[in-house]
Amino acid sequence: MTQPSTPSSTPAPAAAPAETVAASPRACADSTIACDLFCAVIDNFGDIGVCWRLARQLAREHGWQVRLFVDDLHAFQKLCPTLDTARATQTVDGILVEHWHEPTHAGETLRIADVVIEAFACELPPVYVAAMAARARKPVWLNLEYLSAEDWIADFHLRPSPHPRYALSKHFFFPGLGPGTGGVIKESTLDAARADFEHSPEARAAWWQRATGGPPPGADATVISLFAYENPAVDGLLAQWRDSASPIVLLVPEGRISGALARFFDLPAFAAPARAERGALRAHALAFTEQRGYDALLWASDLNFVRGEDSFVRAQWAGKPFVWHIYPQADAAHLPKLDAALAHYDRALPEVPRAALGRFWHAWNGGGTPDWRDFAAHLPAFAARARSWRDELAQVGDLAANLAEFAKSQLK
Ligand code: TRH
Predict the structure, then answer these.
(1) Segment 210-222 mean pLDDT
(2) 135 alpha carbon to ligand 1 midpoint, in Å?
(3) Alpha helices in 365-398 (DSSP H)
(4) DSSP letter (8 states) at residue 363
(5) What is the average per-residue pLDDT within 275-302?
(6) What structural domains and CATH numbers belong to the chain?
(7) pLDDT(29) > 70
(8) Residue 210: CB partners within 8 Å, gap ≥ 6?
(9) What count of Cα atoms within 13 Å lies in the side-chain half-sphere of residue 368?
(10) Is 294 in the pocket of ligand 1 (CB under 6 A)?
(11) What's the gap in Å between 26 CA and the centre of ligand 1?
């Protein structure tokens, strides 16, 4: 798949009969804002992961009536096991979920919301766009872009783009890590939930019991969560962990890197509740959890390997050292994005740990061989920086609140 590096162009829609348009304009109070969020799943879980979080937050924290159009209910169900993949429409956690048969399908009934969000430049059904144009009060139309830490994001954030045929304007909403961007998603309850977990030995013990079937490891162990794409660098890293001077406990959610674990431990598969040991390394395969359960894995670990977009953001809020496996793009277009994120993260580090962090992140993303000892020597510095970075990131404001504020300013 390709991620846009500049705003995507507006599709040219076909006309739709004006009588299908919802007639009455809505009031602008938060409690009555209707929002349609369209999500086409390209691959993996990030597209729906971001949209599902945003939908729930807009509903719960801003009182919006959210309808979420998703074309792949099977991917969605991995994050949300209560979803019924056989149903065309259903309400989950207060969100009306529509199984979206793009590009022509626009839901059971053609209703146009006050705020329309197309995620990651997915194409809205032409009939829906035409109905948006025919609506007495034009909806606020946003294209939610992929997250990037690059500087140009702030220049493009909230730029309007007039539609070539209709009297409609779409705004580009750019998530980002710095001032002037849309920020990243953060639920208002997240810090308290993390603090509760971190300050409760009982909660931690219960989590370990559920996840691994045993108690938490001793304080001498380094706990590492590993969520990544297939990665040739993992074989050497597993060997280094095996030969480590102190215990390493590796927690591996079932997924694309599980095959490498199976090969390393000479097992047919590495699926929950598998557990394997070699030297100083003990590894547990974890069941893929419901989305809300993923944070606790990050909180329970001393170091988190994350990937894509949403887990990358969650790792930042966890405030623990992390290593990012960025979603690879054609022509290495992802590498400037990796460096831009590194620059945000490492700028407050002294020179030696900063260089070690850069070497390790690059090695994990195809640029060399990761050197665990070189990296692990600086874990305390990385941990301190992860906490200060979390505080800096919070200054940008959370994405849902930033989006809601902008939408309301346009609805006035
Ligand atoms: O799955 P991803 O690789 O998604 C990617 C990226 O979003 C990328 O930008 C996009 O272009 C590509 O998909 C199509 O990684 P990401 O973004 O971290 O999403 C994973 C989601 O899975 C996230 O919401 C956390 C969730 N998750 C669980 O719910 N339970 C689990 O056990 C685990 C490990 C993850």
Answers:
(1) 97
(2) 36
(3) 372-376, 379-394
(4) H
(5) 98
(6) 18-184+397-411 (3.40.50), 190-394 (3.40.50)
(7) no
(8) none
(9) 10
(10) yes
(11) 35
